[in-house]
Specification:
glycoprotein; oxidoreductase activity, acting on a sulfur group of donors, disulfide as acceptor; secreted; Gamma-interferon-inducible lysosomal thiol reductase; signal
Length: 147
């Protein structure tokens, strides 16, 4: 249903030279998010890629608080989901492009959260991903979903 709404917005507001910004907030361990990515976004993205500027945000229903400059997160599906959200956010922050990011998120969403950093992605620098995870608090004073 959401995909139909995205297509409708693209058809109504976009032209061949315009793109529509679409932000998708999802959760690393949410069954509905996994189904949406795997069954709707991933198979249909090639048809939409020229018309949308996709912003994948692994945050969903998480909540955060800033206590004395340190962010604390609570995720709907527990600490493992927060861990998965952080890993995905760090990987997505490497700006590999919408097509590669959709492929990566589709792949990672089908894995156990303990394997988030072990999934291979073309041009994804494992070193920079680990640096991002290790120093995320020092890199930015923003929530980790917006590195």
């Amino acid at each position: 249903m959401l995909l139909k709404a995205i297509i409708a917005v693209v058809l109504v507001t976009g032209t061949l030279s315009d793109t529509v910004k679409v932000s998708i907030y999802y959760e690393a361990l949410c069954g509905d998010s996994i189904r949406f990515i795997a069954q709707q976004l991933h198979p249909n993205f090639p048809k939409l890629a020229d018309y949308i500027d996709l912003d994948l945000v692994p945050y969903g229903k998480a909540v955060h608080s800033n206590i004395h400059g340190t962010y604390y997160f609570s995720c709907q599906h527990g600490p493992a989901e927060c861990k998965g959200n952080v890993y995905q956010s760090c990987a997505l922050s490497q700006n590999q492009g919408d097509r590669k990011n959709v492929e990566f998120v589709n792949c990672i969403m089908r894995r156990n959260p303990d394997h988030f950093v072990n999934v291979e992605k073309e041009d994804l620098s494992e070193t920079s991903l680990f640096i991002c995870l290790l120093f995320r608090g020092e890199q930015s004073n923003q929530p980790v979903t917006r590195l």
